[in-house]
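re: ur msg from earlier - yeah i can do the thiamine diphosphate complex, just paste it... oh wait u already did. ok heres what im feeding in:
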Amino acid sequence: MSPFEAQHQAHSGAAEYLQMITPEGERILCPELDGHVADIDTEALAELYVDMVAIRRLDAEGTALQRQGELGLWAPLLGQEAAQIGAGRALATGDYVFPSYREHGIGYCRGVEPGDMLRMWRGAAPSGWDPNEFNMADQQIVIGAQTLHAAGYAMGLRLDGAPDAAITFFGDGATSQGDVNEAMVFATSFAAPLVFFCQNNQWAISVPVGVQAHAPLARRAAGFGMPALRVDGNDVLVVLAATRAALEHARNGQGPSFIEAVTYRMGAHTTADDPSRYRDELELETWRARDPIDRVATLLRSLGADLDSVTARAAAVADGLAAGMRAAIERMPDPGPDELFAHVYAEPHPLLELQQRRYGRYLDQFAAAHERGGRGMSTMTMARALNTGLRAALDHDPKVVLMGEDIGVLGGVFRITDGLQKDFGAHRVIDTPLAEAGIVGTAIGLAFRGYRPVVEIQFDGFVYPAFDQIVSQLAKMHNRTRGRVRMPVTIRIPFGGGIGSPEHHSESPEAYFAHTAGLRVVAPSNPQDACTLLRQAIASDDPVIFLEPKRRYHEKGEVDPEAPGDPWGSAAVARPGTDVTLVAYGPLVKTALDAATAAAGEGISVEVIDLRSLSPVDYPLLAASVRKTGKLVITHEAGASGGLGADIAASLTERCFNYLEHAPVRVTGFDVPYPPSKLESHHLPDLDRILDGVDRVMGRDNSLSGEQE
Ligand SMILES: Cc1ncc(C[n+]2csc(CCOP(=O)(O)OP(=O)(O)O)c2C)c(N)n1
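and the outut:
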């Protein structure tokens, strides 16, 4: 046996964990931790029971509110009640919590109001509560990011000589993220008083924990020189004891520690997820038998507690909580458009104030809302066209491999890779660990090896962990190696807004990539281009950022999967016209076409150009159009500052200065972080705002008429 095998065997026996209450409700001794819960008598145990029932109800109410259309999304905690109540009740008021997005139970323990817990999920605000009121940061959606914030906060506690500790919650998938690993480095290096609390609920959406690690996650801690406890996360008592022990360790100046609470996500990942696609009923049954609440009820009964009165109290607390949530939602006003511009900066910002004033004037013009144009019906959705393009690429070239989070059995969160793993195998359609830098970095390695990787980034906002690999490595490799190494890597990113999602799911990051030498950037607007451009991107020997307008995924159009397409990098005239050139790409091409139809009704002929290739831009085609019309409007969802519109306006002014009859006009998103969904209709350029821009270049009355700024 090799030394590696011996070592591996020594480390990979039955994955043990500490337990105090068995699934059958028996209290067993746990010498390592019993001392930490010596004060928990029957009455205190009954309180923990009440808490768990309460948050189970809170969770059910969240799901119900989402189903009834009151919330955009909800992340259920069903099954994780013991992990959250055990940890939450171990905390002192002065301790600070850095949660992920599923810790409603921790919020409950911290006293966060039900309405505050729901605000972000409703899309009424980017976050829920005042972190400093509850010593709990708001929900974090970028996997693992909060752990570094927690490490920094804990370093501050140590610098201040404060008596408190910090705790951060994250999932099993998060342990693959660079941020989490870097947080452990910082926390140990600086002996930060921090508890890393991993709720290993067995799944990261559709990816089982075995893809993240081949050993218990708690063992990760040893590599950082940090002690760890692995506990039954469905046993509220042992979780309470372990968290108390870890907090004490931190407060005693002994630095960070790691808790792995082994639990199970009984419900869906979020209300948008269907777990029956990737896990079986048998597994669910096994975990149902380990329910965190039932076992405490059994134990309470055997301890002689009056279970009827305990359950009655629990039901009353749960009912009150659910009623409070519903009442809070009923009272919660939708935010007004001014909220869009609020709090972007702490200090006054003239550009944003100008945008706010102008938008106010624009809105003032409208007495009634306008209807949007209808949808065309045809043969294939963009989602299906992309799937068809991927299938064809896999078919034609054995070196094509797909990589990404949840792209296998689940078919991706948007189902773009639906059925491909089944047909081409798990070695070609690869469910990766939850680590974007890792995905792109290894795609680079595969390209070195002669593969043609196609990476799926789950949402636009999650490409940033991979930014360094894309900008510093992928984009530069060909140049660095003087052309000796090619990087035929395609990075597919669903981008843009309009789908009512929380933060990080609606970004328009194209300018970062278009600014990066060495990358090609493409954004289709219709099913045919989605299929053709994707095949061209995969066939290209250069790295391509392939931006998919997610809000158009379900719109249909005619598709010929084998159409050769136009030369790589060319724009298209989507609708010819003679008065105004209107440049759009991705999701806004359809809006621009609708605007052109509306303008035609007023006798204005708008030529709509679908950019398709954002880098390089097809300037010959654009310049020919501007020379014809003399007027240019550019629209995109991304903010104006430093955006593609600025570059296109400058480049076309250089080329066509003598032909322009009016300064180019940009109709864009505002220079604000992408807003919560209740505000996105104000942020996103729509038909009317585009027409307002058309009126400006036409010298017609418009929302800025008479404006001096
Ligand atoms: C950096 C980043 N990449 C991808 C996502 C999309 N995403 C949201 S939740 C999730 C799975 C998280 O699994 P885990 O860390 O185990 O936590 P759990 O949801 O199970 O609580 C993924 C991939 C994200 N939010 N952030």
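cool cool. The pocket of thiamine diphosphate is lined by residues 102, 141-143, 171-174, 201, 203-205, 265, 269, 405, 434, 436, 458, 462, 465 (CB under 6 Å). ping me if u need the other ligands too
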